[in-house]
Amino acid sequence: MEFASLILAPRPPSPAPRHLMLVLALAAALSTWCAGAQAADAVPLKSVAEPASELTARYPLESLTSVDVANKALTDVADAKAEVAARDLEQRRVCYAKFFVNHCLDAAKEQRRLALKAIRPVDITANAFLRKDRADERDKALAVQDAQHPAEAAQKAQDQKEKELSNADKVKQGAAKDKEVEANTRKHLGEADKRVADHNARVLKGQQDEAAKASQRTANVASFEKKAQDSAARQKEVAANKAAKAKDLADKKAAEKGVPATTVPVVTPPAPPASAPASQP
Q: How far apart are CA 236 and CA 272, in angstroms?
């Protein structure tokens, strides 16, 4: 009985496969994203080109012929650029909710470029007119000032002329100074070469004089040694003569007295030491 009740009891539902659950989750996310994209497409967006077209229609280029209109046009140019930037930001924000994001962003970027390109001629023409107007006003003021002060204008012209002449004279003086500096440089280079040559000549002469002095000192030493040898020879000869005379005198005295003659020793004086003479300058 218990076994039959177990067989007849209802079984609990088996869990769904894992991949099936993943597919269902992706389908739900895709459905949500599509709903968001449809909602984004349903939101009406303001045209980025509209501020530029309104500005160019309001200010044709040939209408920018007065200061007031040009200043008002520049103010509206700034407002139009700000409006284009705001609408471009809104379009790019909506692009991120679409499937082809990059394509949408590129289209928005191109619309912004075309809008700014349409605004640029009004901006450039108004600024150019205002610059020309300021230049004309400045020229008129200068002309009025010159007309009111002719003497001052003449003095300014004279001062300008004198200034130009002074500048020309300074240029001439500068050229003459450059030539003088160049001549002095060449002269100094020649003097420097001469000083180097004179120095080399003095060094060579000093070397030659030193060699001549060394040769003279050698000759002086040889002459001194020869004189010392001659002096020693003369002293030896004088001593020999003295000894011979003394011997003759002793022999003579011994003969007179009948006493055998004694041999008198011959004394040879020592030779003086040879010393080199002091070097002469």
A: 11
Q: What is the mean pLDDT of residues 33-39?
A: 49
Question: What mean pLDDT is predicted for residues 46-50?
Answer: 90
d(CA 197, CA 51): 89
Contact 84, 51 (CB under 8 A): yes
First to last CA, the chain: 157
Q: pTM above 0.70?
A: no
Q: Are 260 and 254 in contact (CB under 8 A)?
A: yes
Cβ pair 52, 116 in contact under 8 A: yes
Distance CA 165, CA 187 (A): 33
Other beta carbons within 10 Å of 87: 21
Q: Tens of pLDDT along 90-114?
A: 999 999 888 889 999 999 999 999 9
Taking the C-alpha atoms of residue 69 and residue 248, their distance in angstroms, rounded to an integer, is 160
Q: How confident is the model at residue 263 (pLDDT cuts 50, 70, 90)?
A: low
Confidence of residue 7 (pLDDT cuts 50, 70, 90): very low
Q: How far apart are CA 69 and CA 126, in angstroms?
A: 8
